[in-house]
Amino acid sequence: MTTPLVSVNIGNTAFMLICASLVMLMTPGLAFFYGGLVGRKNVLTIMIQSFMSLGWTTVIWYAFGYSLCFGPDWHGIIGDPRYYAFLHNVTLQTMFTGNNAGIPLVVHIAYQMMFAIITPALITGAFANRVTFKAYFLFLTGWLIFVYFPFVHMLWSPDGLLAKWGALDFAGGIVVHASAGFAALASVIFIGRRHVVENKPHNVPLIALGTGLLWFGWYGFNAGSELQVDSVTASAFLNTDIAASFAAVTWLLVEWAYGRQPKFVGLLTGAVAGLATITPAAGYVSPTTAVIYGLLSGLVCYFAVAVKNKAGWDDALDVWGVHGVGGFLGIVLLGVFASKAWNPNGADGLLFGGAAFFGKQLVSATVCSLWAFLFTYGMLWLISRVTQTKVNPEAEERGLDIELHGEEAYPIGL
User: Fold this and answer.
1) Is 49 domain-assigned?
2) Is 413 within a domain?
3) What is the rounded CA–CA span in Å between residue 328 and residue 173?
4) What is the pTM of this model?
5) Does any domain span residue 1?
6) I want to staple 176 with a disulfide (CB 3.0 to 4.6 A). Which of 91, 172, 199, 387 is the partner?
7) Helix H segments across 197-321?
8) Do the Cβ atoms of 115 and 24 come closer than 8 Å?
């Protein structure tokens, strides 16, 4: 995995540091996005969960997380937790050898850490307003170790089981969005419905701010996943914006047709759905395909949320419908539309004769989503044996900001 320092590519290194900064910005962006969607009495509670991931995930990543993801292989499932533990075997001279980009290993460690931070934070929107902070802390720790880190190793480590099999995930359709989305669904089913249901956003401008930060950061998320600057980087950047834009407009138009009014929150939610859906394919498909991704994600994710509502699942902020369904859809569509003409290191999808590749994408998405769902459900059951998981109805009535944290976003009289 490591070699003595030969020469650092200044351009690639600078680019990757900027991308790492952009992905880091997405976690505060998510906090704003979720904070605007919840009620006034629960703003700080949902936001602290994102910022807690920003801090605690970094600690775990430094201690053993990066090593579990990218350390020497164990049966294609996980890395050796000892090899890079506390950044052992990492020096100023250690280079990342996953490609010929000429970036120091510390840059790759920092960049991938930002992915690890935001992924479990995505799940928090599903159980908004009803989970104790202690239970969330245990959930965050266990989910990273047993869900996120193995998926990273299997798909993004050269020795990973799914990577060697031939499955592709450019920037996190399985690793980030499908895994988080189906974990969110398991959380909703296990924890149950809120006692106090608030589905009306308390601050739409805050949602818009969060969406803007997420959209901006997503360029680092997708384009940066090429890990160097080349033509694939540029196409991934463009594909990201195209898919998000078409999805945003599609969602708005569908909601307008059904509700007779164009909704700002719908436009913003559609954009996030498009971003999530294009993520696994950003560097493997053409801009024209990105248009198809945007149109389909706007439609499919909108109706997935409608199905959720009809089923009575209390996914407070639509994590499953947007990220779970979007990520799964993006992985499967990659099996259809991937083209080596747009990335020679990728694969040809079903439209270009790659039937076997399509099967691998479908199997990978299904197995990983199922594991995320089942493990999350089981882990929450174990956590509930150790500590109270769901807050009591009185706490919901009072608001979790005061009840759990003794703070208020909007103190009366100030």
Assistant:
1) yes
2) no
3) 7
4) 0.95
5) no
6) 172
7) 204-222, 231-259, 264-278, 287-311, 319
8) no
